């Protein structure tokens, strides 16, 4: 199912829901959801996941941040991006430190036990990266017993544990990738293909191995009891896709549309 099929399904769902409501306009519906700060959409990211979310000159920027700002605009709210370590970002959401997580957090069934998730706002593949000088690792089968770097509390941790029992945890995927080029600190890193390619474009002496092991579904998380906000964000995402704003933001950061991916026959990580 490609991005337009996904967007159409979401759009039809909202049309059906709209036909069944009592006629309240968007402004009335907006007052149904709870916000940490009145008039603001406060959303969290780690701030350490370039080019998705990172600090530049004391200001948060990146793909995630611009998507969050565009969604806030659709909801007639002021965007209020904040940072929280990824390892505890879900805990912060549940504790009402912010309204949503727009920080490249992939949907999983386990995470869905603690939060509600929107439809995916992009797709990325879990990819193996090694040092450019590495000639011993040519496939996932070669990772047995190897020292693999992964981001702590990321979706890469569990699959990586099936490939090796020697995992090293990092707060940032960028730091893990950098350690591939420093002595014998790591032999491989499993992270997003997008992040790895961005690191390569920025001069990291690394290379990818094979094709993505799976495709994950980064989505926006909100508190379970705040489902009207999740629905409003889903609605805003559809509008951003349909009007071309999503594509503009994606092409600005990556040169392509991150939703434009043929998922037929691809394993989706859950």
What is the CATH H-level superfamily of the largest domain?
Answer: Periplasmic binding protein-like II
Order of SSEs, N→C? HHEEEEHEHEEEEHEHEHEEEHH
First-last Cα distance: 17 Å
Which consecutive residue ranges, at least 5 long each, have pLDDT under 50? 1-30
What is the helix fraction of residues, given as a range?
25-40%
Mean pLDDT across residues: 88
Strand content: 15-25%
Q: How would you describe what is shown here?
A:
Strands 8, 9, 10, 11, 12 and 13 form a 6-stranded mixed beta sheet that branches. Strands 5-1-6-14-7 form a 5-stranded mixed beta sheet. It has a 3-stranded antiparallel beta sheet with strand order 2-3-4. α1 packs across α8 and α3 (63-74) packs antiparallel against α9. The longest helix has 18 residues, at 3-20. It has 9 helices and 14 strands. It has 270 residues and is an alpha/beta fold. The protein has helices at residues 3-20, 26-30, 63-74, 89-94, 157-163, 173-179, 193-201, 227-243, 245-254, and strands at residues 40-45, 48-49, 53-56, 59-61, 78-83, 100-101, 116-117, 124-131, 147-151, 166-170, 188-192, 206-209, 215-216, 221-222. Residues 1-30 have low confidence and may be disordered. It is globular and about 55 Å long. The protein folds into 2 domains: 3-122 and 217-254, Periplasmic binding protein-like II (D-Maltodextrin-Binding Protein, domain 2, 3-Layer(aba) Sandwich), CATH 3.40.190; 125-215, Periplasmic binding protein-like II (D-Maltodextrin-Binding Protein, domain 2, 3-Layer(aba) Sandwich), CATH 3.40.190.
